[in-house]
């Protein structure tokens, strides 16, 4: 559905992303992980066409229907907009009842957007992203503001949406312990793609264990190279090439991409 070919983005002399090559295929859940400031949101924006790359190329299937859930939505507390109105804004013929049923939140239709809890807001954003029946659902940190118990529910919802809409899902997440169980492929990003693969294999791979340790441990990051504060690679022994063509392996039992470190 979307292919990136050696995509890079430089703004004001700073290289935010470099050498990103990947392909997103239908009905796959692909998760982008990486530390704060790694460029995850920027990558989503490039793939969606909201930002133009300064090098390389992004190709999208013509007419691709996209549903995008941004990382945050700034709501003016005085804005009287209801959830129902928000779901209908700019989307023709959307059924509010169906959209909210899809995220198990039918009771929220008449609520004011500004009054929603963190978890309720994430469900409403998810409902809106799914309302166009997208071929690709793009979710930027969908569990932000959701308590620990609610996070796995959000991931279950995402899996249900994928099954119902038969869409691909591209998501950014910091919830390693949850996404590793619920994703088909993981991309680890830090200005470039540091490693990628199927989670079942990657989580057993020494390279993954070296990077993240125990899955349930707090998020730590170790690579065979280091980045300076601006994200530049500073290790002299990081002499691998950064040509990262990330495509799905032929089967879930294959090992081609498992824990591959670039
Ligand atoms: N339009 C822009 N102009 C200049 N710098 C930008 C722009 N957009 C993003 N950046 C910078 O690029 C870096 C990556 O930002 P991005 O939001 O993509 O990171 P992220 O991986 O999503 O981080 P987080 O996990 O904290 O959400 C940040 O240092 C950010 O300040």
TrEMBL record:
<dbReference type="InterPro" id="IPR017871">
    <property type="entry name" value="ABC_transporter-like_CS"/>
</dbReference>
<feature type="region of interest" description="Disordered">
    <location>
        <begin position="222"/>
        <end position="262"/>
    </location>
</feature>
<keyword id="KW-0862">Zinc</keyword>
<dbReference type="InterPro" id="IPR027417">
    <property type="entry name" value="P-loop_NTPase"/>
</dbReference>
<keyword id="KW-0472">Membrane</keyword>
<feature type="compositionally biased region" description="Polar residues">
    <location>
        <begin position="252"/>
        <end position="262"/>
    </location>
</feature>
<dbReference type="InterPro" id="IPR003593">
    <property type="entry name" value="AAA+_ATPase"/>
</dbReference>
<feature type="domain" description="ABC transporter">
    <location>
        <begin position="2"/>
        <end position="215"/>
    </location>
</feature>
<keyword id="KW-0067">ATP-binding</keyword>
<protein>
    <submittedName>
        <fullName>Zinc ABC transporter ATP-binding protein ZnuC</fullName>
    </submittedName>
</protein>
<dbReference type="Pfam" id="PF00005">
    <property type="entry name" value="ABC_tran"/>
</dbReference>
<keyword id="KW-0864">Zinc transport</keyword>
<keyword id="KW-1278">Translocase</keyword>
<keyword id="KW-0813">Transport</keyword>
<keyword id="KW-0406">Ion transport</keyword>
<dbReference type="GO" id="GO:0005524">
    <property type="term" value="F:ATP binding"/>
</dbReference>
<keyword id="KW-0547">Nucleotide-binding</keyword>
<keyword id="KW-1003">Cell membrane</keyword>
<dbReference type="InterPro" id="IPR050153">
    <property type="entry name" value="Metal_Ion_Import_ABC"/>
</dbReference>
<dbReference type="InterPro" id="IPR003439">
    <property type="entry name" value="ABC_transporter-like_ATP-bd"/>
</dbReference>
